[in-house]
Amino acid sequence: MSYAANNSIKKIVIVGGGTAGWMTAAALSNALQQGCHITLIESEQIGTVGVGEATIPPIRLFNQSLGINENDFIRATQGSFKLGIEFINWGRQNHSYFHPFGSYGRQFDLVSLHHHWLAAKAQGKADSLDSYCMAWVAAQQGRFAPPVTDPRHVLSTHDYAYHFDAGLYASYLRQYSEAKGVLRIEGKISAVKQHSISGFIEAVQLDNGQLLEGELFIDCSGFRGLLIEDTLKPAIRTGHTGCPATEPGLCPVNAVSLLHTPNPQLIRQAGNGASPCNIAPAMAMSSVTTLSASNKRRMFCYKTSEPKLWQNPVCCSLSQGDETYSGIKTWWL
Question: Is 188 noted as a catalytic residue in this protein?
Answer without folding.
Answer: no
